[in-house]
Amino acid sequence: xxxxxxxxxxxxxxxxxxxxxxxxxxxxxxxxxxxxxxxxxxxxxxxxxxxxxxxxxxxxxxxxxxxxxxxxxxxxxxxxxxxxxxxxxxxxxxxxxxxxxxxxxxxxx
Length: 109
Fold this sequence. Notes:
Layout: E1 2-8, E2 11-20, H1 25-37, E3 42-53, H2 55-70, E4 74-78, H3 82-91, E5 98-100
Parallel strand pairs: 2-3, 3-4, 4-5
Antiparallel strand pairs: 1-2
Helix pairs in contact: 1-2
């Protein structure tokens, strides 16, 4: 897993790549929560280059969503590939998260 971020004031774009699973979830959780601790109120998580995502990672994303929602913030996901999008549809999380098919459509500006 590799994770990078770009901060635009209260908005942060986090780009993840590789496999997001039980082994990488703690690192991802810590990374995302540090960004929230630094004051981000809108978080865009770009999953375009993620090859695999498991339920542990879904739990990380849900925890970040809950934390931001408590303060009126929002998490958007960028998922251009049907194979990952299907996971969110099956679990009903497509109704929890705003999902975009490209970074251009996300709230980064």
